[in-house]
Write a sequence for this structure.
């Protein structure tokens, strides 16, 4: 198995369709194949054992991905927001490496041992005109396709190992070949170093859907690009959707006639945001929520358009609440919720989410796999399944607050706080406490024009949950810290609130 | 007759069809295309002609399954032949399309 097999199929299926558009530049499927072949020859000639892109989205990303697959080296999309020392630590792990970047970075990194550095435009020029690598790509399913450094919100970044077998299985299990209509165009605005950015390239390509790249996210630029490129599908992280909704509300209308489907994932979507979005967009817009991890080659579960409509229209609480779920497992994925002793638990019971399937890697560079002997991967995400298999996330298992021997999930308390009309956003963390070991603390962002006291919020939580879950400390903030892909920086909140608690 | 495992690639001896194995039963499997046993992806094609009664064709990107659900093959290159397990034609696998999620 090799990702190249997917590209080869796409080329024979629809050679003249445009595969990817970025600004004024584009590549048809056949041209992408040719460019990948030429870039593969360059990578091979450099003697590199890995090929990295340290850059925003551009045509160099799909070219680099498939060139790496053809040359038989792992592709490494690096986070271009990292600073010198952070970046150095990642580069150390991947040399000898062929690296594509912008002109400024290229100048800084020139001459670094083990790196052959090239500027994006030069790389693409050579790829468009060079001769293809005079060798077939390998078909070893165990070969590494992508090394993706995880975001490191819970610790130092580590590289997840995604082998060709994982990614090919993911695509074959979740995408119908040529399933997209000819005019379909999917807007990719997550950075290349996000698993959704990588997965979007592979799934769109296999579906025959043109990829439209937005190198740097901005709500207005996103809206304008949807119009200009007649985008039909788009994936966003929750913070992006919130900003898009705000921008559209500011403009006073949603004039995006081409947009048929919006999918979101990569973090917890506040119920208020998705409800506002569903009210704002035409009823024909298909919303899809996806849950997945870098270590699982992207999507594991999907809450599809029909689920969204049924939940939003229902008065039955069990159905209505599914709008806050991440949906059900893909047919090729199994999910089990397990307790602290590793025993599987039934519907409605909280525990750690374990997943199994051909797309699940669960392996990190230089470290042993975290996949168990039974093939299940412990995600470290907490959650529970309802009677029909809908999965509800409860935050990271490592974020569980232990107060006087009682385990509490921050997500459960956050959900209640968010139900309060004055609360726009919040984060609940455990802070050190002499009496209880840990105490519940909350950082709360108020909705515009709203006011509420800490005491009133505590009382509100007590009406919904056991009184032990009411935050002992509540502080008000203008905003919560998120990273650029919309992940709450819980460690930062915890540190700040721990200081306030003293 | 061949032993097949997921990821194995095979091709038709009598038409352009190429397949990748998604799932296969253990042991020898008699997969045929256009009336002739299929061969390994790198094996030279024998001098053989397609059986005119076995020309319903294969479609790229489609999956073909046997009635028992033990064999599943993905067509990576289309051709003229009919796919069969022994004498029994394989059927197109119907799958419910999933919404695009990334």
């Amino acid at each position: 198995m090799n990702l190249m097999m997917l590209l080869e199929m796409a080329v024979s299926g629809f050679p003249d369709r445009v595969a990817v558009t970025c600004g004024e530049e584009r590549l048809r499927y056949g041209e992408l194949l040719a460019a990948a072949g030429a870039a593969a020859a360059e990578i091979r000639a450099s003697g590199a054992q890995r090929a990295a892109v340290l850059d925003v989205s551009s045509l160099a990303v799909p070219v680099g991905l498939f060139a790496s697959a053809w040359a038989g080296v792992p592709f490494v999309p690096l986070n271009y927001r990292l600073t010198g020392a952070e970046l150095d630590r990642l580069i150390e792990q991947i040399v000898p490496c062929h690296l594509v970047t912008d002109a400024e970075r290229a100048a800084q990194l020139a001459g670094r041992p083990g790196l052959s550095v090239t500027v994006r435009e030069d790389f693409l020029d050579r790829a468009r005109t060079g001769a293809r690598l005079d060798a077939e790509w390998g078909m070893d399913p165990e070969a590494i396709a992508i090394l993706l450094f995880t975001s490191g919100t819970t610790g130092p970044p580590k590289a997840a190992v995604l082998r060709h077998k994982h990614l090919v299985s993911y695509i074959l299990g979740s995408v119908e070949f040529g399933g997209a209509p000819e005019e379909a165009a999917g807007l990719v605005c997550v950075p290349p170093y996000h698993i959704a950015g990588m997965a979007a390239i592979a799934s769109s390509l296999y579906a025959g859907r043109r990829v439209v790249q937005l190198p740097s996210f901005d709500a207005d630029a996103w809206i304008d690009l949807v119009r200009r490129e007649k985008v039909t599908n788009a994936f966003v992280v929750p913070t992006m959707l919130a900003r898009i909704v705000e921008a559209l509300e500011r403009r006073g209308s949603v004039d995006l006639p081409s947009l048929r489907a919006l999918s979101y994932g990569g973090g917890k979507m506040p119920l208020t945001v998705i409800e506002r979005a569903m009210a704002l967009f035409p009823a024909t817009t298909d919303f899809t929520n996806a849950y997945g991890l870098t270590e699982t080659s992207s999507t594991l579960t999907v809450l599809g358009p029909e689920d969204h409509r049924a939940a939003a229209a229902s008065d039955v609480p069990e159905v209505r609440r599914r709008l806050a779920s991440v949906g059900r497992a893909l047919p090729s994925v199994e999910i089990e919720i397990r307790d602290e002793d590793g025993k599987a638990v039934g519907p409605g019971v909280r525990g750690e989410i374990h997943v199994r399937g051909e797309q699940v890697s669960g392996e990190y560079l230089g470290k042993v796999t975290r996949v168990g002997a039974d093939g299940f991967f412990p995600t470290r995400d907490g959650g529970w399944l309802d009677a029909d298999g809908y999965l509800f996330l409860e935050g990271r298992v490592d974020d569980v607050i232990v107060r006087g021997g009682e385990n509490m999930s921050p997500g459960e308390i956050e959900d209640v706080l968010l139900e309060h009309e004055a609360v726009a956003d919040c984060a609940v963390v455990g802070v050190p406490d002499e009496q209880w070991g840990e105490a519940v603390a909350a950082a709360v962002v108020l909705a515009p024009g709203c006011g509420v006291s800490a005491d009133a919020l505590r009382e509100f939580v007590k009406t919904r949950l056991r009184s032990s879950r009411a935050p002992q400390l509540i502080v008000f903030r203008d905003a919560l810290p998120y990273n650029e892909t919309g992940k709450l920086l819980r460690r930062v909140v915890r540190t700040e609130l721990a200081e306030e608690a003293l | 007759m061949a032993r097949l495992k997921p990821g194995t690639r095979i091709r038709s001896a009598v038409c352009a069809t190429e397949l990748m194995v998604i799932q296969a039963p253990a042991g020898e499997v008699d997969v045929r295309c256009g009336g002739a046993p299929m061969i390994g992806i790198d094996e030279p094609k024998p001098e053989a002609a397609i059986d005119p009664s076995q020309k319903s064709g294969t479609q790229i990107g489609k999956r073909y399954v046997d009635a028992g659900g033990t064999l599943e093959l993905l067509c990576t290159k289309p051709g003229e032949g009919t796919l069969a397990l022994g004498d029994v034609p394989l059927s197109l696998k119907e799958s419910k399309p999933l919404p695009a999620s990334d």
